[in-house]
């Protein structure tokens, strides 16, 4: 049996074990994937355990995604840009850190809402870890520009300045959001506004969005946020956060096994687990 897992704190509610075990079964792989509670201060021991027990792969979630980078042998370019690792591949004893959140988000956005991001104008709301996690992957698609706006404007300026200028990521003041949204092809909410239990809260006035444009939210609880519901009413194409979770797992599966991920089966089993 090939061993896999996810570490985090808290970890009880993780849907990764049901999703990845379903994927292994679907593809006929003799793998076992379990969730492990790793408290702060135990992370280095946990990674030593991965080496000692010969795990093939590990997912890493909050609060360990940043610190774990110091215990690995190699970090991918995307993970360096995101400043976080969520997927580890054990390549014959060499631990390589990747970030599949950003590329998983982009694959989901392309599959489910907008296949071609090249030349598009993207507005991104928020400047926290979730924003950093997807910016590099978005920039790989060659959009015309990515405009970052945040309630605390200095954080948006700092975040955008941390990327190379040729990625065309810049920040705008919150007061310019209305006009920026009117002109945008894709508006992405990476803030926590609208997340359960505050499900009626809105990050921006949805009437600023252009009909036909894409409204995307990284939040997947609720599956369709108030922001997306109202965007849909004015004629936007909407994209929720569940796909990001499914595709970050799909990429992890593909990096570990070299086989294509059974995305539909993975999505179905996660959706079943919500009821
Ligand atoms: P994460 O890692 O999930 O991105 P985070 O680093 O705490 O979490 O970032 C949360 C983001 O949501 C930030 O951009 C935050 O804005 P500030 O930097 O101004 O705090 C944003 N956010 C949270 N509550 C908000 C609110 N009520 N209105 C606007 N933005 C909000």
Describe this structure in words.
Homodimer. It catalyses: shikimate + NADP(+) = 3-dehydroshikimate + NADPH + H(+). The active site is at 65 (proton acceptor). One of its GO terms (cellular component) is cytosol. Involved in the biosynthesis of the chorismate, which leads to the biosynthesis of aromatic amino acids. Catalyzes the reversible NADPH linked reduction of 3-dehydroshikimate (DHSA) to yield shikimate (SA). The structure is a single chain. The chain has 275 residues and is an alpha/beta fold. It has 2 domains: 2-98 and 245-273, Rossmann fold (3-Layer(aba) Sandwich), CATH 3.40.50.10860; 102-240, 3-Layer(aba) Sandwich (Rossmann fold). 37% of the residues lie in helices and 20% in strands. It is built from 10 helices and 12 strands. It has helices at residues 16-26, 43-53, 77-82, 100-112, 129-139, 153-161, 177-183, 226-233, 242-257, 263-273; strands at residues 2-8, 31-37, 57-60, 74-75, 87-91, 94-98, 121-125, 145-149, 169-171, 186-189, 214-217, 237-239. A 6-stranded mixed β-sheet has the order 2-1-3-5-6-4, sandwiched between helices. Strands 9-8-7-10-11-12 form a 6-stranded parallel β-sheet, with helices on both faces. Helix 8 (226-233) links the parallel strand 11 (214-217) and strand 12. Helix 4 (100-112) crosses helix 5 and helix 9 crosses helix 10 (263-273). The chain is globular, with a radius of gyration of 19 Å. It starts with a strand and ends with a helix. The mean pLDDT is 97.
Task: Summarize this entry quickly.
The chain has 275 residues and is an alpha/beta fold.
